[in-house]
Specification:
Length: 356
């Protein structure tokens, strides 16, 4: 077969969501033939330009009771303006959508309506909006079920928003891990990305590596080189002994009193972020640090140093970032008091006149 016909059949396979390893390898070596910035009514943004515009962000709406019962919502759409006015440019909307599917994997109309309200309010507030499918725990246990639900999710959500502003970005799946080995995750990307691309050929899509979006797995992440509308992401909670001490869900790290901010801590942070930057340069992909933070039981002075150092280290390398998280835990906004947690907010966004 001539190379051109190989390329054509691979492209056909890509869009039929059935890609073989051979095609994956081939796409890695192909020149950039992705569609231009415009497609239909949609005006795309270069992925590097979008990351520069995203700047500082925050994760919102994870496990908010309002997803199920609007009367119980903690997060209100008007918070998006507060977030914008505090100096953030981006929100990452955390969606556990699998709980809102029927037996045919159709998303509940009410849940989609609530998502519409949040998307519109966030865009109206001037924010870049990431839609993050966050059913990583189900996916880490049962890849077969995850594959079906994830593809069904994007087959419904991607067309719904195909004409929305390019400030809306899709993130295929948070933190693939365990049963979702790096190899299975690479295969999943080549299944799910075409589902999105069928209706959103040039919208930017966020994809991270395996093992909980760990930077150490970036070298194993396989992205189709011809698709230039991809933003790579990683999450950073190292050292877990500091960030997750006392957390009830990572129980091996008890309340140890581990603090953060020594020269060795900072050197490790710089080494890790330099490795991400080197990968970004090698593959010509812009970067989002999609989650970072330290749990409330860690000492506040260390949390401030950690939060500030990570935000500045990301900015120094041109990465956009999104703090974990607005409400629930690691909070930067106290909904009960209706007030920012100022030490964390100021660590993230230094007030005017204060050296970062
Ligand atoms: C999870 C949260 C967890 C956080 C830090 C997120 O990806 O969804 O449940 O609190 O990581 O561990």
């Amino acid at each position: 077969m001539k190379p051109s016909s190989i390329m054509m059949s691979c492209a056909a396979l890509l869009f039929a969501a059935a890609v073989t390893t051979g095609c994956t390898e081939l796409t890695k070596n192909m020149a950039n033939t992705s569609p231009g910035p415009e497609s239909g009514n949609f005006v795309g943004i270069d992925a590097f330009v979008q990351v520069a515009e995203m700047g500082r962000g925050v994760n919102v709406l994870s496990e908010d009771p309002g997803w199920t019962d609007p009367a119980k919502a903690r997060f209100k759409p008007e918070y998006f303006k507060k977030i914008h006015d505090a100096g953030f440019g981006t929100v990452r909307i955390v969606m556990q959508a699998f709980d809102h599917m029927d037996m045919y994997y159709s998303l509940e109309a009410g849940w989609l309506h609530r998502l519409d309200i949040m998307v519109d309010a966030a865009l109206d507030a001037g924010l870049t909006v990431i839609l993050d499918e966050h059913d990583y725990l189900i996916c880490g246990k049962d890849v077969a079920i995850c594959t079906q639900k994830l593809n069904a999710f994007w087959a419904q959500v991607a067309p719904r928003y195909k004409n929305k502003s390019a400030k809306l970005i899709f993130e295929i799946l948070n933190e693939p891990h365990e049963a979702f080995t790096p190899e299975l995750w690479n295969a999943q990307i080549m299944q799910t990305l075409p589902v999105i691309r069928a209706t959103n050929p040039v919208r930017n899509v966020i994809i991270g590596p395996g093992s909980w979006n760990s930077l150490s797995l970036l070298p194993k992440l396989e992205l189709p080189v011809t698709d230039r509308h991809i933003i790579a992401t990683f999450h950073y909670y190292a050292p877990m002994e500091f960030t997750h001490q006392g957390s009830p869900w990572v129980t091996q790290f008890k309340l140890t009193g581990r603090n953060w901010g020594s020269d060795a801590d900072i050197a490790q942070l710089n080494k890790d972020f330099d490795a991400v930057k080197a990968w970004s340069n090698e593959w010509n992909r812009p970067i989002l640090l999609g989650e970072f933070g330290a749990y409330e039981t860690a000492p506040m002075d260390g949390r401030i140093r950690y939060t500030s150092a990570l935000a500045r280290a990301a900015e120094a390398r041109g990465f956009a970032w999104a703090y974990w998280q607005f409400d629930k835990d690691f909070v930067v906004y106290d909904i009960d008091k209706d007030a920012w947690v100022e030490p964390i907010l100021h660590a993230l966004i230094p007030p005017a006149g204060v050296a970062p």
